[in-house]
Write a structure and sequence with these properties.
The complex is a heterodimer of chains A (114) and B (111). Chain A is mainly β and 114 residues long. Chain A has no helices and eleven strands. Classes of the chains: A mainly beta (114), B mainly beta (111).
Chain lengths: 114, 111
């Protein structure tokens, strides 16, 4: 089975621009979660989607948004980019029948904001 | 809210040494506990998990036991290899489905 894939792998943007990241979950997985990883803050939860609905949201400003499509693929969007948005953005998928299930991570998209 | 505290390191060991990375947690209810590993330039890989008290997760020589009485999930390996050099994250997941991570521990194993 193919793993979680994320595109693009690397991005360079300038302040004020917006960016869209894409995530394709493992086949059959209905939950997709997004995390931001930075050296200073570590791994922080952004949001989780299940069956096209946002089920959970972390403490990030409204500039961060996401959506999930009927095939479970997900996108996240960051508008009005700031220097502090430079990070590795990780997507994870799971079956999500039970909260005990494992989340499987993709390789991440590394975003650099100049 | 949920939280995870793990020793931040860095930890430097010689090959074949014994490894312990401490992890304690705070959570309501009965969370599931995980150890993930991250190699340079990569995403997170699940190393092992435990879903209830006294469960022992194990994989590739690594072990961790879910201790509810001490709210701990310490990672151990009897004999580390150079290839184990990576960052290790302890994490929990409670009924809100999101993973809460510790800060990560950088392990370097020297030949």
């Amino acid at each position: 089975k193919a793993g979680v894939t994320q595109t693009p792998r690397y991005l360079i943007k300038t302040r004020g621009q917006q960016v869209t990241l894409s995530c394709s979950p493992i086949s059959g997985h209905r939950s997709v979660s997004w995390y931001q990883q930075t050296p200073g803050q570590g791994l922080q939860f952004l949001f989780e989607y299940f069956s096209e609905t946002q089920r959970n949201k972390g403490n990030f400003p409204g500039r961060f948004s996401g959506r999930q499509f009927s095939n479970s693929r997900s996108e996240m969007n960051v508008s009005t980019l700031e220097l502090g948005d430079s990070a590795l953005y990780l997507c994870a998928s799971s079956l999500a029948v039970s909260y005990q299930e494992t989340q499987y991570f993709g390789p991440g998209t590394r975003l650099l904001v100049l | 809210g949920d939280s995870v505290t793990q020793m931040e390191g860095p930890v430097t060991l010689s090959e074949e040494a014994f490894l312990t990375i401490n992890c304690t947690y705070t959570a309501t209810g009965y969370p599931s506990l995980f150890w993930y590993v991250q190699y340079p330039g990569e995403g997170l890989q699940l190393l092992l998990k435990a879903t209830k008290a006294d469960d022992k997760g194990s994989n590739k020589g690594f072990e961790a036991t879910y201790r509810k009485e001490t709210t701990s999930f310490h990672l151990e390996k009897g004999s580390v290899q150079v290839s184990d050099s990576a960052v290790y994250f302890c994490a929990l997941k409670s009924s809100n489905y999101k993973l809460t991570f510790g800060k990560g521990t950088l392990l370097t194993v020297n030949p």
